[in-house]
Design brief:
11 helices; alpha+beta; 251 residues; 2 domains; 5 strands
Length: 251
């Protein structure tokens, strides 16, 4: 039976951090003590978008994340490629099968060798159903040291449906919560003016509504564009909406 208490806690969590803390602790009970979740809304045929715009959550050590994400190893990771083309869960036994069939590129072999050097040997990956053409989310569940892939497959055989259901709920909850990438968070006033732009108001309208000058409204919009790393106000509204930074209920 699905852990209904955990799901209720996840659904009622007020922040991504709270959801992530609940999830990492619960997955560890199944033997997955290191996990990495990623979601992008900027996927194209040749790119997953700017990593700074990813929703990236992990409890892996910083050294591993620095190499795997910041140095771009993830883009050549076989399980990442599998996740982009599939939905559902996949045992990492898939890697041994690809290797045996001589279907791994040299870059993919380097990623596997790096993972093994970091104790990332056995686990499962889950690719979530996409709700928009350019969006994609997935999570990698790494088994604790000492567990073999055969043992992990047995754990999945016993509890896989429950693990999959919990991860799907966590993924959907994350998509509804504010995500503020480091250095790209908006002030309350910036969120407010972008919200009015999203409602179709002009700069003059917003100035009247908020009791500000048009120049002050323009300043807030300019700072919002800078904070979000975009060039136009339309892009700022879209990105702020993607990150759930607009129309949020204050805690």
């Amino acid at each position: 039976m699905i852990a209904t208490k955990l799901i209720n806690q996840v659904v009622n969590a007020a922040s991504i951090e709270e959801v992530w803390d609940l999830h990492t602790r619960h997955m560890a009970k199944f033997g997955f003590d290191r996990i990495m979740y990623g979601y992008t809304r900027y996927r194209t045929a040749n790119s997953l978008g700017d990593p700074e715009d990813f929703v990236l959550l992990t409890n892996h050590k910083s050294g591993y994340v620095k190499c795997f994400i910041e140095q771009g190893l993830y883009f050549h990771a076989p399980m990442v490629r599998w996740a982009l083309d599939n939905e559902g869960a996949c045992s990492w036994r898939f890697l041994s099968e690809m290797d045996a069939a001589n279907r791994l590129s040299e870059q993919e072999k380097k990623v596997i060798a790096f993972n093994r050097s970091q104790g990332v040997n056995a686990g499962y990956s889950i690719s979530f159903r996409s709700v928009m053409p350019r969006g994609k989310g997935a999570i990698a569940l790494t088994a604790r040291a000492g567990l073999t892939q055969s043992q992990v497959d047995q754990i999945w055989g016993d509890h896989g449906n429950q693990i999959l259901a919990i991860n799907n709920v966590v993924h959907l909850r994350i998509l509804t919560l504010p995500h503020e990438p480091l250095g790209r968070c908006l002030t309350k006033r910036q969120r407010e003016v972008l919200g009015w732009v999203g409602d179709g108001k002009t700069t003059q309208d917003i100035a009247l509504l908020l009791g500000l000058t048009s120049a002050t409204v323009e300043k807030h919009l300019r700072l919002a564009r800078q904070a979000l790393g975009v060039e136009t106000t339309a892009q700022a509204v879209l990105k702020a909406a993607f990150q759930n930074q607009m129309f949020v209920v204050e805690a």
